[in-house]
């Protein structure tokens, strides 16, 4: 199986694990044996998608961005924090991607329908690259709380490009988006760092605070009626998990 970076203090994953633990017992053997279906959600894999990595592939990580507080004052203007989210609005999934500049104290965002939160995370990277391109930067320091995005920029993109963006004769997930990102990466030096999301306040650094800023910017406004609908859906899922687990 591919090798990726996973932190032992991955708080967002821990929180999701608790939410889905009732499902894991019953469904851990479903789907690709290398990444069971339910774990695709927990580990940031787009559910049902194949990223094109075979079990024997080994990824070499590219250079990593230093912690935000280690950047010099001259480097910080070129640092951008990215995030993406999705939720049900009415009867449709909506996604939102956002980019936050700590020095300029401004955000840039894009929204759409019919895609996942993973798509939104990737779209946020595309937005950040667009900003750097528009401003004619030569260097870009990226910060994300998505392991999928970080690993892609650390090495997966090179693997996909070498395989002509295909896997077993089929395009990889979100191929046009990844191809655009790969083309933009050739125009400037880009470094990326993964940040743990949702850390306790007493452990939060300036880096985490900036991640919270972009997290808020990526949130989708939902009407009260949609919140009730989502709550009912989660309740039905909880009942299903309880019934199928035999508890």
UniProtKB/TrEMBL annotation:
PROSITE patterns: RNASE_H_1 (PS50879). It holds the Pfam family RNase_H. Residues 74-223 form the RNase H type-1 domain. It comes from the Eukaryota. InterPro entries: RNaseH-like_sf (IPR012337), RNaseH_domain (IPR002156), RNaseH_sf (IPR036397). This is Ribonuclease H-like. It comes from Grus japonensis (Japanese crane).
